[in-house]
Amino acid sequence: MTAEPVPAAPTAAAFQEELAGLASPEQRQKYRRYFPGDDSFVGVRMGDVFAVAGRALVMPVDQIELLLESPTHEVRAGACSIMGKAASHRSVSADRHRELYDLYLRRHDRIDSWDLVDLGAHQVVGSWLVDKPRDPLDRLAVSSFWPERRSAIVATAAFIKRRDIVDTLRLARTLVHDENDFVQKGAGWMLRYAGDVDRDALLVFLDENAAGMPRVMLRYAIEKLDPPVRAGYLAAARTP
Protein backbone atom coordinates (compact mmCIF):
# COMPACT_ATOMS: atom_id res chain seq x y z
CA MET A 1 0.00 0.00 0.00
CA THR A 2 1.42 3.38 -0.97
CA ALA A 3 1.48 6.13 1.64
CA GLU A 4 -0.77 9.11 1.10
CA PRO A 5 1.16 12.28 0.20
CA VAL A 6 1.74 14.77 2.98
CA PRO A 7 -0.39 17.88 2.35
CA ALA A 8 1.64 20.90 1.32
CA ALA A 9 1.96 23.63 3.92
CA PRO A 10 -0.12 26.75 3.25
CA THR A 11 1.75 29.45 1.37
CA ALA A 12 1.49 33.22 1.43
CA ALA A 13 0.84 33.26 -2.31
CA ALA A 14 -2.10 30.86 -2.09
CA PHE A 15 -3.52 32.76 0.88
CA GLN A 16 -3.38 36.07 -0.96
CA GLU A 17 -4.91 34.54 -4.07
CA GLU A 18 -7.85 33.19 -2.05
CA LEU A 19 -8.42 36.56 -0.39
CA ALA A 20 -8.29 38.36 -3.74
CA GLY A 21 -11.13 36.17 -4.95
CA LEU A 22 -13.27 37.29 -2.02
CA ALA A 23 -12.84 41.04 -2.53
CA SER A 24 -15.71 43.22 -3.66
CA PRO A 25 -16.01 46.88 -4.64
CA GLU A 26 -18.93 47.27 -2.23
CA GLN A 27 -16.91 46.13 0.77
CA ARG A 28 -13.98 48.29 -0.25
CA GLN A 29 -16.29 51.30 -0.31
CA LYS A 30 -17.46 50.47 3.21
CA TYR A 31 -13.88 50.42 4.42
CA ARG A 32 -13.28 53.80 2.79
CA ARG A 33 -16.15 55.23 4.84
CA TYR A 34 -14.90 53.69 8.08
CA PHE A 35 -11.22 54.41 7.43
CA PRO A 36 -11.12 57.65 5.43
CA GLY A 37 -7.82 58.25 3.70
CA ASP A 38 -6.68 54.62 4.10
CA ASP A 39 -6.45 52.98 0.68
CA SER A 40 -4.82 49.78 1.92
CA PHE A 41 -8.10 47.83 1.92
CA VAL A 42 -9.10 45.79 -1.14
CA GLY A 43 -12.61 44.91 0.04
CA VAL A 44 -12.59 41.54 1.83
CA ARG A 45 -14.98 41.11 4.77
CA MET A 46 -13.10 40.43 8.00
CA GLY A 47 -15.26 37.38 8.61
CA ASP A 48 -13.94 35.94 5.36
CA VAL A 49 -10.36 36.91 6.28
CA PHE A 50 -10.67 35.06 9.59
CA ALA A 51 -12.23 32.01 7.93
CA VAL A 52 -9.36 31.73 5.45
CA ALA A 53 -6.87 32.25 8.30
CA GLY A 54 -8.51 29.46 10.27
CA ARG A 55 -7.63 27.04 7.49
CA ALA A 56 -3.98 28.12 7.45
CA LEU A 57 -2.90 27.70 11.06
CA VAL A 58 0.10 25.55 10.16
CA MET A 59 1.53 28.14 7.77
CA PRO A 60 5.31 28.40 8.30
CA VAL A 61 6.50 31.61 9.92
CA ASP A 62 8.48 32.67 6.86
CA GLN A 63 5.24 32.61 4.87
CA ILE A 64 3.37 34.51 7.60
CA GLU A 65 6.12 37.12 7.45
CA LEU A 66 5.51 37.50 3.72
CA LEU A 67 1.86 38.22 4.51
CA LEU A 68 2.92 40.85 7.03
CA GLU A 69 4.98 42.55 4.35
CA SER A 70 1.92 42.99 2.14
CA PRO A 71 0.61 46.53 1.60
CA THR A 72 -2.95 45.15 1.75
CA HIS A 73 -4.64 45.55 5.12
CA GLU A 74 -6.73 42.39 4.88
CA VAL A 75 -3.65 40.31 4.09
CA ARG A 76 -1.83 41.61 7.15
CA ALA A 77 -5.00 41.05 9.20
CA GLY A 78 -4.93 37.49 7.94
CA ALA A 79 -1.33 37.10 9.09
CA CYS A 80 -2.19 38.39 12.55
CA SER A 81 -5.26 36.17 12.71
CA ILE A 82 -3.19 33.11 11.80
CA MET A 83 -0.69 33.97 14.53
CA GLY A 84 -3.38 34.58 17.14
CA LYS A 85 -5.41 31.47 16.33
CA ALA A 86 -2.34 29.25 16.05
CA ALA A 87 -0.80 30.48 19.31
CA SER A 88 -4.02 29.92 21.23
CA HIS A 89 -4.80 26.52 19.69
CA ARG A 90 -4.99 23.74 22.26
CA SER A 91 -2.39 21.67 20.41
CA VAL A 92 0.20 24.42 19.83
CA SER A 93 3.72 23.33 20.71
CA ALA A 94 6.10 25.48 22.73
CA ASP A 95 8.44 25.72 19.72
CA ARG A 96 5.64 26.91 17.45
CA HIS A 97 4.40 29.43 20.00
CA ARG A 98 7.89 30.79 20.50
CA GLU A 99 8.33 31.21 16.74
CA LEU A 100 5.08 33.17 16.54
CA TYR A 101 6.02 35.30 19.54
CA ASP A 102 9.41 36.13 18.04
CA LEU A 103 7.84 36.98 14.68
CA TYR A 104 5.22 39.24 16.26
CA LEU A 105 7.84 41.28 18.11
CA ARG A 106 10.41 41.28 15.31
CA ARG A 107 7.93 42.48 12.68
CA HIS A 108 5.86 44.78 14.84
CA ASP A 109 6.64 47.45 12.25
CA ARG A 110 3.99 45.75 10.08
CA ILE A 111 1.52 45.36 12.96
CA ASP A 112 0.78 49.04 12.86
CA SER A 113 -2.93 49.55 13.58
CA TRP A 114 -5.18 48.91 16.56
CA ASP A 115 -7.09 46.05 14.91
CA LEU A 116 -3.93 44.20 13.94
CA VAL A 117 -2.60 44.54 17.49
CA ASP A 118 -5.83 43.20 18.94
CA LEU A 119 -5.70 40.10 16.73
CA GLY A 120 -2.47 38.89 18.30
CA ALA A 121 -1.23 40.79 21.33
CA HIS A 122 -2.81 38.72 24.07
CA GLN A 123 -2.98 35.46 22.11
CA VAL A 124 0.62 35.49 20.87
CA VAL A 125 2.53 37.73 23.28
CA GLY A 126 0.57 37.64 26.52
CA SER A 127 -0.07 33.91 26.53
CA TRP A 128 3.63 33.23 25.87
CA LEU A 129 4.62 35.34 28.87
CA VAL A 130 2.10 33.85 31.31
CA ASP A 131 4.76 31.74 33.03
CA LYS A 132 7.75 33.94 32.15
CA PRO A 133 9.19 37.33 33.19
CA ARG A 134 7.04 40.20 31.94
CA ASP A 135 9.83 42.70 31.22
CA PRO A 136 9.33 42.49 27.41
CA LEU A 137 6.03 44.30 28.01
CA ASP A 138 7.80 47.07 29.91
CA ARG A 139 10.02 47.65 26.90
CA LEU A 140 7.02 47.77 24.59
CA ALA A 141 5.21 50.17 26.93
CA VAL A 142 7.89 52.85 26.51
CA SER A 143 8.30 52.44 22.75
CA SER A 144 8.07 55.49 20.51
CA PHE A 145 5.86 53.38 18.20
CA TRP A 146 2.34 53.59 19.58
CA PRO A 147 1.16 50.14 18.34
CA GLU A 148 3.87 48.56 20.48
CA ARG A 149 2.55 50.46 23.50
CA ARG A 150 -0.96 49.18 22.77
CA SER A 151 0.43 45.65 22.44
CA ALA A 152 2.00 45.95 25.89
CA ILE A 153 -1.28 46.65 27.65
CA VAL A 154 -3.57 44.47 25.50
CA ALA A 155 -1.22 41.51 26.00
CA THR A 156 -2.14 41.55 29.69
CA ALA A 157 -5.59 40.21 28.80
CA ALA A 158 -3.92 36.78 28.89
CA PHE A 159 -3.02 37.37 32.55
CA ILE A 160 -6.39 38.84 33.48
CA LYS A 161 -8.06 35.67 32.17
CA ARG A 162 -6.08 33.90 34.88
CA ARG A 163 -7.18 36.47 37.47
CA ASP A 164 -3.78 38.15 37.55
CA ILE A 165 -4.13 41.94 37.20
CA VAL A 166 -0.81 43.10 38.66
CA ASP A 167 0.85 43.76 35.31
CA THR A 168 -2.25 45.40 33.88
CA LEU A 169 -2.29 47.97 36.68
CA ARG A 170 1.47 48.47 36.52
CA LEU A 171 1.53 49.05 32.78
CA ALA A 172 -1.55 51.25 32.94
CA ARG A 173 0.36 53.49 35.34
CA THR A 174 3.15 53.71 32.75
CA LEU A 175 0.63 54.65 30.05
CA VAL A 176 -1.64 56.88 32.12
CA HIS A 177 -0.41 60.04 30.39
CA ASP A 178 -0.07 58.54 26.91
CA GLU A 179 -1.15 60.97 24.22
CA ASN A 180 -2.24 58.41 21.62
CA ASP A 181 -5.98 57.77 21.45
CA PHE A 182 -5.60 54.08 20.57
CA VAL A 183 -3.24 53.47 23.48
CA GLN A 184 -5.62 55.32 25.80
CA LYS A 185 -8.53 53.16 24.65
CA GLY A 186 -6.49 49.97 25.02
CA ALA A 187 -5.44 50.88 28.56
CA GLY A 188 -8.98 51.80 29.56
CA TRP A 189 -10.31 48.57 28.07
CA MET A 190 -7.84 46.46 30.06
CA LEU A 191 -8.56 48.41 33.25
CA ARG A 192 -12.26 47.71 32.81
CA TYR A 193 -11.47 44.04 32.27
CA ALA A 194 -9.25 44.04 35.38
CA GLY A 195 -12.16 45.53 37.35
CA ASP A 196 -14.17 42.40 36.56
CA VAL A 197 -11.55 40.45 38.52
CA ASP A 198 -10.93 42.91 41.38
CA ARG A 199 -13.23 45.93 41.54
CA ASP A 200 -11.56 47.30 44.66
CA ALA A 201 -8.14 47.29 42.98
CA LEU A 202 -9.60 49.20 40.04
CA LEU A 203 -11.12 51.78 42.39
CA VAL A 204 -7.77 52.26 44.14
CA PHE A 205 -6.13 52.80 40.76
CA LEU A 206 -8.79 55.31 39.77
CA ASP A 207 -8.55 57.17 43.08
CA GLU A 208 -4.83 57.62 42.45
CA ASN A 209 -4.93 58.38 38.74
CA ALA A 210 -8.34 59.50 37.49
CA ALA A 211 -7.64 63.20 37.80
CA GLY A 212 -4.68 62.95 35.40
CA MET A 213 -6.01 60.35 32.98
CA PRO A 214 -7.06 61.20 29.44
CA ARG A 215 -10.82 61.30 29.39
CA VAL A 216 -11.20 58.54 26.80
CA MET A 217 -9.07 56.17 28.90
CA LEU A 218 -11.12 56.97 31.96
CA ARG A 219 -14.44 56.48 30.16
CA TYR A 220 -13.40 53.03 29.02
CA ALA A 221 -12.13 52.10 32.49
CA ILE A 222 -15.27 53.13 34.40
CA GLU A 223 -17.85 51.80 31.95
CA LYS A 224 -19.11 49.06 34.28
CA LEU A 225 -19.16 51.11 37.48
CA ASP A 226 -22.38 52.44 38.99
CA PRO A 227 -23.55 55.75 37.47
CA PRO A 228 -22.86 57.90 40.59
CA VAL A 229 -19.34 56.47 40.84
CA ARG A 230 -18.71 57.12 37.15
CA ALA A 231 -19.95 60.68 37.50
CA GLY A 232 -17.59 61.32 40.40
CA TYR A 233 -14.54 60.17 38.50
CA LEU A 234 -15.51 62.09 35.37
CA ALA A 235 -15.92 65.27 37.41
CA ALA A 236 -12.36 64.88 38.67
CA ALA A 237 -10.84 64.04 35.29
CA ARG A 238 -8.76 66.27 33.09
CA THR A 239 -10.24 67.59 29.88
CA PRO A 240 -9.29 65.83 26.62
Describe this protein's structure:
- This is DNA alkylation repair protein.
- It holds the Pfam family DNA_alkylation.
- It comes from Cryobacterium arcticum.
- The protein is mainly α.
- The protein folds into two domains: 7-132, no CATH class; 134-239, Leucine-rich Repeat Variant (Alpha Horseshoe).
- Helix content is 64%, strand content 0%.
- It has helices spanning 12-20, 25-34, 46-54, 61-68, 73-87, 94-106, 114-128, 135-141, 146-154, 157-160, 166-175, 181-197, 199-209, 215-221, 227-236.
- Helix 5 runs antiparallel to helix 6, helix 11 (166-175) packs antiparallel against helix 12 and helix 12 packs parallel to helix 14 (215-221).
What structural class results from the helix and strand content?
Answer: mainly alpha
Could you name the ranges where pLDDT drops below 50 across 5 or more consecutive residues? Answer: none
Summarize the biggest pleated sheet: none
Helix content: 55-70%
For the record, give the distance between the C-alpha atoms at the N and C termini, rounded to a whole number. Answer: 72 Å
Multimeric organization: single chain
Rg (CA only): 20 Å
SSE sequence, one letter per element: HHHHHHHHHHHHHHH
As a percent range, the share of strand residues is under 5%
Quantity of strands, as a count: 0
What's the shape?
globular
Query: What is the average of the pLDDT values?
Result: 95
Organism: Cryobacterium arcticum
Protein name: DNA alkylation repair protein
InterPro entries: ARM-type_fold, DNA_alkylation
Break the fold down into its secondary structure elements and pairings.
Layout: H1 12-20, H2 25-34, H3 46-54, H4 61-68, H5 73-87, H6 94-106, H7 114-128, H8 135-141, H9 146-154, H10 157-160, H11 166-175, H12 181-197, H13 199-209, H14 215-221, H15 227-236
Helix pairs in contact: 1-4, 3-5, 4-5, 5-6, 5-7, 6-7, 7-9, 8-9, 9-12, 11-12, 12-13, 12-14
